[in-house]
Specification:
With 241 residues, this protein is α/β, with parallel strands linked by helices. It folds into two domains: 2-197, Ribonuclease H-like superfamily/Ribonuclease H (Nucleotidyltransferase, domain 5), CATH 3.30.420.10; 208-240, no CATH class. The protein is built from eleven helices and five strands; from the N terminus they run βββαααβααβαααααα. The radius of gyration is 28 Å and the shape is elongated. The model is unreliable at 171-197 (pLDDT under 50).
Length: 241
C-alpha cells in the first residue's frame, strides 16, 4: 500500500479569504515503511504572507518571490500523489487549500479525485477523546522527537507526522477506526502470513527411551491421583490409543 504523508504551509488561515499555499511537503510510505522518496516545493503565492503566519513558519515574502507558482508544479505534484492515500493532520484545512490551488491552476481535478485521504486528527480524537491532539501533543504522547521544530515547515512536519502516524496506528486494525488503516493492516497481515509460510519448523521425535520414561511418569501420576492422567484424555492421545 502506498501512502503519502503531506503537510502545507500557507499565507494565512482562511482559504475563503484568498490565502494561498507557500510550501508543500510530502513523505512516501510503502507498506508502512518510509521509502526514502519525498516531494517538497516552496511556492510563490502572489500575495503577502500575514504576520501571524510568518511567526509560525518564518517563510518570508522576499524568499517566496523567486519560487515557482503552484500552477507551474501542479502536474508534477499530482503525478507524485496519484492513487496514493494521503495522510494529513487536520485534512480539511490542507485539502481545502489544495483544492483551491488546483482550481486556480485550471487542473480540472480535486484531491478526492486523485487520492483517498486519512485524517490523523480524526484518528487521534477517536483514540484519545478529550485530550489535546495537536501534532506536538501527539509527539509527546508517542515519544516522537520533534526537538528541531522551532518553526513549522511542511516537509519537516510531514516527516514528524509520518513517525506519529506509524506509532499511533500500529496494531489498531481491530478497532476499525479507518478504512485505509484497516486495509494497510490487512496488507501487513498478509505479509506476516507469507513469511510464516516460508519458515520450515523441524519436528523432533522422541526416542524409545524417552517414550518409556514418559509412560513411567504417567503411571506414577495416575497412581497418586487414583485416576487417569489428563494427558491420556487429550485428543492426540486418544487417536494414538
Amino acid at each position: 500500500m502506498r501512502q503519502i504523508v503531506l503537510d502545507t504551509e500557507t499565507t494565512g488561515l482562511e482559504v475563503a479569504d484568498g490565502h494561498r499555499i507557500i510550501e508543500i511537503g510530502c513523505v512516501e510510505l510503502m507498506h508502512r515503511r518510509p521509502s526514502g522518496r519525498t516531494w517538497q516545493r516552496y511556492l510563490r503565492p502572489e500575495r503577502e504572507v500575514e504576520a501571524g503566519a510568518l511567526a509560525v513558519h518564518g517563510i518570508t515574502n522576499e524568499f517566496l518571490a523567486s519560487q515557482p507558482r503552484f500552477a507551474d508544479v501542479a502536474p508534477e505534484f499530482l503525478a507524485f500523489i496519484e492513487g496514493a492515500e494521503l495522510v494529513i493532520h487536520n485534512a480539511e484545512f490542507d485539502v481545502g487549500f489544495l483544492d483551491a490551488e488546483l482550481a486556480l491552476a485550471g487542473a480540472g481535478r480535486t484531491i478526492a479525485e486523485a487520492c483517498r485521504v486519512l485524517d490523523t486528527l480524526s484518528l487521534a480524537r477517536r483514540l484519545h477523546p478529550g485530550q489535546r491532539n495537536s501534532l506536538d501533543a501527539l509527539c509527546k504522547h508517542y515519544k516522537v522527537d520533534n526537538s528541531g521544530r522551532d518553526l513549522h515547515g511542511a516537509l519537516l512536519d510531514a516527516r514528524i507526522l509520518a513517525d506519529v502516524y506509524l506509532a499511533m496506528s500500529g496494531g489498531q486494525a481491530a478497532l476499525s477506526l479507518d478504512h485505509g488503516l484497516a486495509a494497510e493492516d490487512d496488507a501487513a497481515g498478509e505479509s506476516r502470513r507469507a513469511r510464516r509460510r516460508d519458515v520450515r519448523i523441524p519436528v523432533i521425535h522422541p526416542t524409545a527411551a524417552e517414550l518409556a520414561a514418559h509412560e513411567e511418569a504417567l503411571v506414577a501420576v495416575e497412581r497418586a491421583a487414583s485416576g487417569p492422567a489428563l494427558f491420556r484424555l487429550l485428543p492426540g492421545d486418544r487417536e494414538r490409543g
